[in-house]
Amino acid sequence: MRKKRSLLIGMAILIVILRYLGSEIEFVANPVNKAAGKIVVIDPGHGGIDPGCSSKNGVLEKHLVLEISKKLEKKLNSYAIYTILTREIDTDLAPDVKGPLIRRKREDLNRRAALVKKHNADIFVSIHANSFPESKWSGAQTFYPPECGRSRLLAEAIQNSLVTKVGPNTRKAKPGDFRVLRESQVPSTMVEVGFLSNQKEAQLLQDPAYQDRLVDAIAKGIVDFFESGGASQVSAERVQPEVFVGPILKEDEVLVFFASTEDNGLLDYEKRTVSKSDPESVLRLLHLGPQNQRTLKALLETSSLTYIGKNQNRVYVTVDFGDTQITGHLEELAVYSVVNSLTSLSGIEEVVMEVIGSSEEFDWSKPLRFNSFLVKGKAEEY
Protein backbone atom coordinates (compact mmCIF):
# COMPACT_ATOMS: atom_id res chain seq x y z
CA MET A 1 0.00 0.00 0.00
CA ARG A 2 2.82 2.36 0.96
CA LYS A 3 4.65 1.56 -2.30
CA LYS A 4 1.56 2.34 -4.38
CA ARG A 5 1.01 5.61 -2.49
CA SER A 6 4.66 6.63 -2.98
CA LEU A 7 4.42 5.84 -6.70
CA LEU A 8 1.32 8.03 -7.11
CA ILE A 9 2.97 10.91 -5.26
CA GLY A 10 6.06 10.57 -7.47
CA MET A 11 3.99 10.65 -10.67
CA ALA A 12 2.13 13.74 -9.45
CA ILE A 13 5.41 15.55 -8.77
CA LEU A 14 6.71 14.58 -12.24
CA ILE A 15 3.57 15.97 -13.92
CA VAL A 16 3.96 19.29 -12.07
CA ILE A 17 7.61 19.54 -13.12
CA LEU A 18 6.81 18.77 -16.77
CA ARG A 19 4.05 21.39 -16.83
CA TYR A 20 6.39 23.95 -15.34
CA LEU A 21 9.17 23.20 -17.82
CA GLY A 22 6.89 22.49 -20.78
CA SER A 23 7.64 25.77 -22.49
CA GLU A 24 11.38 25.09 -22.19
CA ILE A 25 11.38 21.56 -23.63
CA GLU A 26 11.73 21.15 -27.40
CA PHE A 27 10.57 17.84 -28.79
CA VAL A 28 12.38 16.88 -32.02
CA ALA A 29 11.19 14.01 -34.21
CA ASN A 30 13.80 11.42 -35.21
CA PRO A 31 15.23 12.13 -38.67
CA VAL A 32 13.78 9.96 -41.44
CA ASN A 33 16.06 7.07 -42.40
CA LYS A 34 15.77 6.88 -46.17
CA ALA A 35 17.28 3.39 -46.12
CA ALA A 36 14.57 1.99 -43.85
CA GLY A 37 12.21 -0.34 -45.66
CA LYS A 38 14.48 -0.80 -48.67
CA ILE A 39 15.03 -4.31 -50.01
CA VAL A 40 18.55 -5.60 -50.70
CA VAL A 41 19.47 -8.90 -52.32
CA ILE A 42 22.81 -10.10 -50.93
CA ASP A 43 24.53 -12.64 -53.15
CA PRO A 44 27.29 -14.79 -51.58
CA GLY A 45 29.21 -15.81 -54.71
CA HIS A 46 29.80 -19.39 -55.87
CA GLY A 47 28.73 -22.31 -53.64
CA GLY A 48 28.24 -26.06 -53.94
CA ILE A 49 30.20 -27.50 -56.86
CA ASP A 50 31.72 -24.06 -57.54
CA PRO A 51 34.34 -23.25 -54.87
CA GLY A 52 35.52 -19.97 -56.38
CA CYS A 53 39.16 -19.11 -55.72
CA SER A 54 41.19 -20.32 -52.74
CA SER A 55 44.10 -19.31 -50.54
CA LYS A 56 47.36 -21.24 -50.27
CA ASN A 57 46.23 -22.81 -47.00
CA GLY A 58 42.94 -23.96 -48.49
CA VAL A 59 40.45 -21.25 -47.54
CA LEU A 60 37.66 -21.41 -50.15
CA GLU A 61 35.99 -18.28 -51.45
CA LYS A 62 32.52 -19.86 -51.30
CA HIS A 63 32.75 -20.41 -47.51
CA LEU A 64 34.34 -17.04 -46.75
CA VAL A 65 31.82 -14.93 -48.67
CA LEU A 66 28.86 -16.81 -47.18
CA GLU A 67 30.12 -16.01 -43.69
CA ILE A 68 30.60 -12.32 -44.56
CA SER A 69 27.22 -12.13 -46.33
CA LYS A 70 25.38 -13.45 -43.27
CA LYS A 71 27.05 -10.79 -41.15
CA LEU A 72 26.12 -8.15 -43.72
CA GLU A 73 22.50 -9.30 -43.56
CA LYS A 74 22.37 -8.74 -39.79
CA LYS A 75 24.04 -5.34 -40.11
CA LEU A 76 21.60 -4.14 -42.78
CA ASN A 77 18.67 -5.42 -40.71
CA SER A 78 19.85 -3.12 -37.90
CA TYR A 79 19.20 -0.22 -40.31
CA ALA A 80 15.63 -1.55 -40.86
CA ILE A 81 16.62 -2.74 -44.34
CA TYR A 82 14.98 -5.94 -45.59
CA THR A 83 17.42 -8.51 -46.96
CA ILE A 84 17.32 -11.65 -49.09
CA LEU A 85 20.31 -14.01 -49.28
CA THR A 86 20.61 -15.84 -52.60
CA ARG A 87 21.96 -18.81 -50.64
CA GLU A 88 22.25 -19.61 -46.94
CA ILE A 89 24.16 -22.90 -47.19
CA ASP A 90 26.96 -24.35 -49.32
CA THR A 91 25.03 -24.92 -52.53
CA ASP A 92 24.54 -23.46 -55.97
CA LEU A 93 21.11 -22.39 -57.22
CA ALA A 94 20.82 -24.85 -60.11
CA PRO A 95 21.45 -28.38 -58.73
CA ASP A 96 18.58 -29.68 -60.87
CA VAL A 97 20.19 -28.68 -64.17
CA LYS A 98 21.65 -31.66 -66.01
CA GLY A 99 24.23 -31.77 -68.76
CA PRO A 100 27.41 -29.70 -69.17
CA LEU A 101 28.66 -27.87 -66.09
CA ILE A 102 28.72 -24.64 -68.11
CA ARG A 103 24.93 -24.83 -68.50
CA ARG A 104 24.43 -25.35 -64.77
CA LYS A 105 26.70 -22.42 -63.91
CA ARG A 106 24.91 -20.09 -66.33
CA GLU A 107 21.50 -21.04 -64.91
CA ASP A 108 22.83 -20.57 -61.38
CA LEU A 109 23.77 -16.97 -62.18
CA ASN A 110 20.46 -16.31 -63.92
CA ARG A 111 18.52 -17.56 -60.88
CA ARG A 112 20.50 -15.32 -58.56
CA ALA A 113 19.61 -12.29 -60.66
CA ALA A 114 15.97 -13.43 -60.91
CA LEU A 115 15.58 -13.09 -57.13
CA VAL A 116 15.78 -9.32 -57.59
CA LYS A 117 12.55 -9.26 -59.59
CA LYS A 118 10.88 -11.89 -57.42
CA HIS A 119 11.36 -9.83 -54.25
CA ASN A 120 11.04 -6.41 -55.92
CA ALA A 121 14.48 -5.52 -54.57
CA ASP A 122 15.93 -2.03 -54.71
CA ILE A 123 19.56 -3.07 -55.16
CA PHE A 124 21.70 -6.19 -55.69
CA VAL A 125 25.05 -6.69 -53.91
CA SER A 126 27.22 -9.69 -54.81
CA ILE A 127 30.01 -10.61 -52.38
CA HIS A 128 33.19 -12.25 -53.70
CA ALA A 129 36.90 -12.60 -52.96
CA ASN A 130 39.64 -11.88 -55.47
CA SER A 131 42.75 -13.73 -56.60
CA PHE A 132 45.78 -13.18 -58.83
CA PRO A 133 48.78 -15.36 -59.76
CA GLU A 134 51.12 -12.84 -58.11
CA SER A 135 50.67 -12.39 -54.36
CA LYS A 136 51.39 -8.65 -54.40
CA TRP A 137 47.88 -7.41 -55.10
CA SER A 138 45.59 -6.62 -52.14
CA GLY A 139 42.59 -4.53 -51.16
CA ALA A 140 38.81 -4.57 -51.48
CA GLN A 141 37.27 -3.27 -54.69
CA THR A 142 33.80 -2.78 -56.14
CA PHE A 143 32.60 -3.29 -59.72
CA TYR A 144 29.49 -2.17 -61.57
CA PRO A 145 27.90 -2.86 -64.98
CA PRO A 146 29.48 -0.61 -67.66
CA GLU A 147 27.51 2.51 -68.61
CA CYS A 148 25.05 2.12 -65.70
CA GLY A 149 25.04 5.37 -63.73
CA ARG A 150 23.02 4.26 -60.69
CA SER A 151 25.15 1.13 -60.27
CA ARG A 152 28.24 3.31 -60.46
CA LEU A 153 26.89 5.50 -57.64
CA LEU A 154 26.26 2.40 -55.50
CA ALA A 155 29.71 0.94 -56.19
CA GLU A 156 31.42 4.26 -55.48
CA ALA A 157 29.52 4.73 -52.21
CA ILE A 158 30.64 1.31 -50.98
CA GLN A 159 34.20 1.76 -52.28
CA ASN A 160 34.55 5.14 -50.53
CA SER A 161 33.29 3.60 -47.30
CA LEU A 162 35.72 0.67 -47.61
CA VAL A 163 38.65 3.05 -48.11
CA THR A 164 37.58 5.21 -45.15
CA LYS A 165 36.70 2.47 -42.68
CA VAL A 166 39.03 -0.39 -43.68
CA GLY A 167 41.88 1.12 -45.77
CA PRO A 168 44.59 1.77 -46.71
CA ASN A 169 43.37 1.18 -50.24
CA THR A 170 44.05 3.04 -53.48
CA ARG A 171 41.58 0.99 -55.51
CA LYS A 172 38.56 2.63 -57.12
CA ALA A 173 35.15 1.41 -58.24
CA LYS A 174 35.50 0.07 -61.79
CA PRO A 175 33.18 -1.12 -64.57
CA GLY A 176 32.94 -4.91 -64.83
CA ASP A 177 30.57 -6.63 -67.24
CA PHE A 178 29.63 -9.48 -64.88
CA ARG A 179 26.64 -11.48 -66.08
CA VAL A 180 24.88 -11.50 -62.69
CA LEU A 181 25.10 -7.71 -62.39
CA ARG A 182 23.93 -7.07 -65.92
CA GLU A 183 20.92 -9.39 -65.54
CA SER A 184 19.76 -7.98 -62.18
CA GLN A 185 18.30 -4.82 -63.83
CA VAL A 186 18.53 -2.71 -60.66
CA PRO A 187 21.49 -0.76 -59.22
CA SER A 188 24.00 -3.55 -58.63
CA THR A 189 27.59 -4.02 -57.58
CA MET A 190 30.11 -6.76 -56.94
CA VAL A 191 32.21 -6.31 -53.82
CA GLU A 192 35.54 -8.16 -53.94
CA VAL A 193 36.42 -8.12 -50.24
CA GLY A 194 40.13 -8.79 -50.77
CA PHE A 195 42.70 -11.13 -52.30
CA LEU A 196 42.98 -14.72 -51.10
CA SER A 197 46.18 -14.92 -53.16
CA ASN A 198 47.78 -12.43 -50.75
CA GLN A 199 48.75 -14.45 -47.66
CA LYS A 200 48.50 -11.54 -45.23
CA GLU A 201 45.11 -10.44 -46.54
CA ALA A 202 43.83 -14.03 -46.62
CA GLN A 203 44.58 -14.26 -42.88
CA LEU A 204 42.80 -10.96 -42.25
CA LEU A 205 39.73 -12.10 -44.17
CA GLN A 206 39.37 -15.05 -41.78
CA ASP A 207 39.54 -12.78 -38.71
CA PRO A 208 36.01 -12.15 -37.32
CA ALA A 209 36.97 -8.65 -36.18
CA TYR A 210 38.25 -7.74 -39.65
CA GLN A 211 35.12 -9.22 -41.22
CA ASP A 212 33.05 -6.96 -38.96
CA ARG A 213 34.98 -3.92 -40.21
CA LEU A 214 34.34 -4.96 -43.81
CA VAL A 215 30.65 -5.51 -43.13
CA ASP A 216 30.31 -2.16 -41.34
CA ALA A 217 31.93 -0.41 -44.31
CA ILE A 218 29.78 -2.17 -46.93
CA ALA A 219 26.59 -1.50 -44.96
CA LYS A 220 27.53 2.17 -44.46
CA GLY A 221 28.11 2.52 -48.20
CA ILE A 222 24.70 1.02 -48.95
CA VAL A 223 22.99 3.35 -46.46
CA ASP A 224 24.87 6.35 -47.89
CA PHE A 225 23.64 5.36 -51.36
CA PHE A 226 20.01 5.29 -50.21
CA GLU A 227 20.39 8.48 -48.16
CA SER A 228 21.74 10.32 -51.21
CA GLY A 229 18.75 9.22 -53.27
CA GLY A 230 20.95 7.19 -55.60
CA ALA A 231 18.39 4.42 -56.08
CA SER A 232 15.82 6.87 -57.45
CA GLN A 233 18.13 8.72 -59.82
CA VAL A 234 16.75 7.19 -63.00
CA SER A 235 18.67 9.66 -65.12
CA ALA A 236 21.94 9.30 -63.24
CA GLU A 237 24.88 10.27 -65.40
CA ARG A 238 25.93 7.43 -67.65
CA VAL A 239 29.46 6.13 -67.39
CA GLN A 240 31.26 7.59 -70.38
CA PRO A 241 33.60 5.35 -72.38
CA GLU A 242 37.14 6.56 -72.80
CA VAL A 243 39.47 6.76 -75.75
CA PHE A 244 42.84 5.18 -75.08
CA VAL A 245 45.73 7.35 -76.22
CA GLY A 246 48.70 5.09 -76.87
CA PRO A 247 52.21 5.83 -78.11
CA ILE A 248 53.08 6.35 -81.75
CA LEU A 249 54.23 3.03 -83.23
CA LYS A 250 56.67 2.22 -86.00
CA GLU A 251 55.80 -0.37 -88.64
CA ASP A 252 57.64 -3.12 -86.74
CA GLU A 253 56.18 -2.25 -83.31
CA VAL A 254 53.06 -3.50 -81.51
CA LEU A 255 51.42 -2.93 -78.13
CA VAL A 256 51.06 -5.93 -75.85
CA PHE A 257 48.89 -5.64 -72.73
CA PHE A 258 49.71 -7.28 -69.41
CA ALA A 259 48.56 -6.75 -65.81
CA SER A 260 50.01 -3.73 -64.06
CA THR A 261 52.30 -4.37 -61.08
CA GLU A 262 50.65 -1.43 -59.34
CA ASP A 263 47.92 -2.42 -56.91
CA ASN A 264 45.13 -1.07 -59.11
CA GLY A 265 43.61 -4.06 -60.90
CA LEU A 266 44.36 -2.62 -64.34
CA LEU A 267 46.23 -3.49 -67.52
CA ASP A 268 49.41 -1.78 -68.68
CA TYR A 269 51.22 -2.18 -71.99
CA GLU A 270 54.65 -2.82 -73.41
CA LYS A 271 55.83 -1.59 -76.80
CA ARG A 272 57.47 -4.54 -78.53
CA THR A 273 59.36 -5.00 -81.79
CA VAL A 274 58.24 -7.79 -84.15
CA SER A 275 59.35 -9.07 -87.55
CA LYS A 276 55.74 -9.01 -88.72
CA SER A 277 52.92 -6.91 -87.25
CA ASP A 278 50.12 -9.48 -87.27
CA PRO A 279 47.79 -11.28 -84.79
CA GLU A 280 49.92 -14.42 -84.54
CA SER A 281 52.98 -12.38 -83.51
CA VAL A 282 50.96 -10.63 -80.81
CA LEU A 283 49.60 -13.92 -79.44
CA ARG A 284 53.13 -15.34 -79.23
CA LEU A 285 54.27 -12.30 -77.23
CA LEU A 286 51.29 -12.62 -74.89
CA HIS A 287 52.16 -16.26 -74.26
CA LEU A 288 55.83 -15.46 -73.58
CA GLY A 289 54.93 -12.75 -71.07
CA PRO A 290 56.28 -9.30 -70.18
CA GLN A 291 59.87 -8.12 -70.41
CA ASN A 292 59.90 -5.28 -67.88
CA GLN A 293 59.15 -5.05 -64.17
CA ARG A 294 56.17 -2.75 -64.67
CA THR A 295 53.86 -5.53 -65.84
CA LEU A 296 52.78 -9.07 -64.98
CA LYS A 297 51.38 -11.84 -67.14
CA ALA A 298 47.57 -11.77 -66.97
CA LEU A 299 47.20 -15.21 -68.57
CA LEU A 300 47.91 -18.20 -66.35
CA GLU A 301 50.74 -20.55 -67.30
CA THR A 302 48.19 -23.27 -68.03
CA SER A 303 46.44 -21.06 -70.61
CA SER A 304 46.86 -21.48 -74.36
CA LEU A 305 46.05 -19.16 -77.27
CA THR A 306 45.09 -20.30 -80.76
CA TYR A 307 44.74 -18.03 -83.77
CA ILE A 308 41.81 -19.10 -85.96
CA GLY A 309 41.79 -16.43 -88.64
CA LYS A 310 40.76 -12.96 -89.74
CA ASN A 311 37.78 -11.63 -91.67
CA GLN A 312 37.92 -7.94 -92.60
CA ASN A 313 38.27 -6.01 -89.30
CA ARG A 314 37.54 -9.02 -87.07
CA VAL A 315 39.96 -11.60 -85.62
CA TYR A 316 38.96 -15.08 -84.37
CA VAL A 317 40.82 -16.59 -81.40
CA THR A 318 40.47 -19.45 -78.91
CA VAL A 319 41.58 -18.99 -75.30
CA ASP A 320 41.83 -22.15 -73.22
CA PHE A 321 42.36 -21.64 -69.48
CA GLY A 322 43.10 -25.33 -68.97
CA ASP A 323 42.29 -27.05 -65.70
CA THR A 324 43.00 -23.99 -63.57
CA GLN A 325 40.00 -22.38 -61.87
CA ILE A 326 39.77 -18.77 -63.05
CA THR A 327 37.04 -16.41 -61.93
CA GLY A 328 36.07 -12.80 -61.45
CA HIS A 329 38.26 -9.85 -62.31
CA LEU A 330 41.25 -12.07 -63.12
CA GLU A 331 39.28 -13.69 -65.93
CA GLU A 332 38.30 -10.28 -67.25
CA LEU A 333 41.92 -9.07 -67.20
CA ALA A 334 43.13 -12.24 -68.94
CA VAL A 335 40.59 -11.94 -71.76
CA TYR A 336 41.11 -8.23 -72.32
CA SER A 337 44.88 -8.53 -72.29
CA VAL A 338 44.30 -10.51 -75.51
CA VAL A 339 41.52 -8.31 -76.89
CA ASN A 340 43.29 -5.00 -76.23
CA SER A 341 46.55 -6.28 -77.71
CA LEU A 342 44.89 -7.51 -80.91
CA THR A 343 42.67 -4.46 -81.41
CA SER A 344 45.74 -2.22 -81.08
CA LEU A 345 46.84 -3.61 -84.45
CA SER A 346 45.96 -1.47 -87.45
CA GLY A 347 42.75 -2.59 -89.16
CA ILE A 348 41.47 -4.78 -86.30
CA GLU A 349 38.43 -3.51 -84.41
CA GLU A 350 36.84 -6.64 -82.93
CA VAL A 351 37.84 -10.02 -81.52
CA VAL A 352 35.52 -13.02 -81.59
CA MET A 353 36.73 -15.36 -78.88
CA GLU A 354 35.94 -18.88 -77.82
CA VAL A 355 36.81 -19.12 -74.12
CA ILE A 356 37.33 -22.65 -72.83
CA GLY A 357 37.25 -23.03 -69.05
CA SER A 358 35.31 -19.80 -68.49
CA SER A 359 33.61 -19.24 -65.15
CA GLU A 360 30.46 -18.13 -67.03
CA GLU A 361 30.51 -14.93 -64.98
CA PHE A 362 30.92 -13.05 -68.27
CA ASP A 363 29.33 -13.32 -71.69
CA TRP A 364 32.22 -13.79 -74.13
CA SER A 365 29.96 -14.86 -77.01
CA LYS A 366 29.64 -11.39 -78.54
CA PRO A 367 32.41 -9.62 -80.51
CA LEU A 368 34.74 -7.82 -78.09
CA ARG A 369 36.28 -4.38 -78.57
CA PHE A 370 39.12 -2.50 -76.89
CA ASN A 371 38.32 -1.94 -73.20
CA SER A 372 39.77 1.38 -72.10
CA PHE A 373 38.22 1.12 -68.62
CA LEU A 374 40.80 -1.55 -67.74
CA VAL A 375 43.85 0.33 -68.98
CA LYS A 376 46.28 2.21 -66.78
CA GLY A 377 47.56 5.40 -68.32
CA LYS A 378 46.48 8.34 -70.38
CA ALA A 379 42.94 8.43 -71.69
CA GLU A 380 40.54 11.07 -72.93
CA GLU A 381 36.76 11.10 -72.60
CA TYR A 382 34.54 11.43 -75.65
The CATH topology of the largest domain is Aminopeptidase
Number of helices: 9
Overall shape: it is globular
Report the uncertain regions. 1-5, 14-31, 378-382
Q: Looking across the biggest beta sheet, what order are the strands in?
A: 2-1-3-6-4-5
Question: pLDDT average, as an integer?
Answer: 87
Radius of gyration: 25 Å
Number of strands: 14
**Going by CATH, what is the homologous superfamily of the largest domain?**
Zn-dependent exopeptidases
Class of secondary structure makeup: alpha/beta
What does the largest sheet look like?
Answer: 6 strands, mixed
The span between the termini is: 84 Å
Strand percent estimate: 15-25%
Overall tally of structural domains: 2
Helix percentage: 25-40%
| Highest-level CATH class of the largest domain | Alpha Beta
CATH architecture of the largest domain: 3-Layer(aba) Sandwich
The ordered H/E elements are HEHEHEEHEHEHHEEEHEEEHEE
Structure characterization notes:
With 382 residues, the chain is an alpha/beta fold. It has 2 domains: 39-232, Zn-dependent exopeptidases (Aminopeptidase), CATH 3.40.630; 243-381, no CATH class. Helix content is 35%, strand content 20%. The chain has 9 helices and 14 strands. The chain has helices spanning 2-21, 61-78, 101-118, 149-165, 179-184, 199-205, 208-227, 279-288, 328-343, and strands spanning 39-44, 82-85, 123-130, 141-144, 174-175, 188-195, 242-244, 253-260, 267-273, 295-296, 304-311, 314-320, 350-356, 379-381. The strands form 4 sheets. A 6-stranded mixed sheet has the order 2-1-3-6-4-5, sandwiched between helices. β4 (141-144), α4 and β5 form a beta-alpha-beta unit. α8 (279-288) runs antiparallel to α9. The longest helix is centred in the first third of the chain and has 20 residues, at 2-21. The radius of gyration is 25 Å and the shape is globular. The N and C termini lie far apart (84 Å). The model is unreliable at 1-5, 14-31 and 378-382 (pLDDT under 50).
